[in-house]
Amino acid sequence: MNMRNSKKVDQTTPYAIYGFFRSFRESLNDDSDFSDFISTLTITPMKAVVENVLPFFRRSSDPSLLTNFQVMIRQAEQNSDFESTFMRVCDAIDMLEKVEMALRSDRRLMDGYLKAMQFDNASASHQQVWSGLQRFLNEECDLATKRRMERVFAEQKASDELGLNEDVLATAHALIGDDGLYIQLLETLQLNNRQNLPWETVITRIQRIIETNKPRVWPMLRKFLDEVHSGRGIDELEYNLYWEYIENEYAEYAEEENETLYIEQKLANIALDPEKDSVSVVEPQQTQDQRKQQREVLGAV
């Protein structure tokens, strides 16, 4: 949501600050410009920051964002608490964009998340933030939203602790095709990394989890995990092969689902008559109506 029409009082909230960063990113043609902008902000004193980032605003499609930025920087120079809030949002911008996607761009939920995480309270303890986050997930989010959020958190931890990039994470998730199993996979990898266990021990634990629930995906997932673990890197051709497999799996799954649905529909039309000890096929109402109309037309001829 574009924040340029926000009232001045709103520009001090974590949601308004996040809204500015999101709008500025969307106004740039090259995402690397936004990355450089964020890097410049983090290393430049507040008094010099406007001058240093002016070239980025010249490449923006929305000139009004510079005015919004200047207002926030002046506020940051005058208020150390606001400066802290501004920089905390800045430092977390990539994570916050993933959270917003998980929340389906719901403004109320995004504002609630930022408040739960206490971005405007630098003195909040870890326990306070954790308690606030759990209340938000359990009281404000439905089960599907909560699961998407859990996936975001698991991926962030896996990225920080294991150095897994977005291509690896996206491919692993698609190979498994189940959020719950995917989160278990990432948590198992992190736990075993902390315990410094041998790879074969780690992979055996993962195998038990996957084969118990989705055994057909295990051979390709095992191959992928071994390649990631080897550290030699996966090139574009190899990624393409994995995604071709994933697309074929989805196509086969969809075909199986359609066949199952067809059979279920047929079975739903079968009626048992215990008194006559017989089985009959019950036509859907639509088919019955069509046949009735046909009989009426024929009778009129």
Automatic annotation (TrEMBL):
It comes from the Eukaryota. Residues 278-301 are annotated as: Disordered. This is 8217_t:CDS:1.
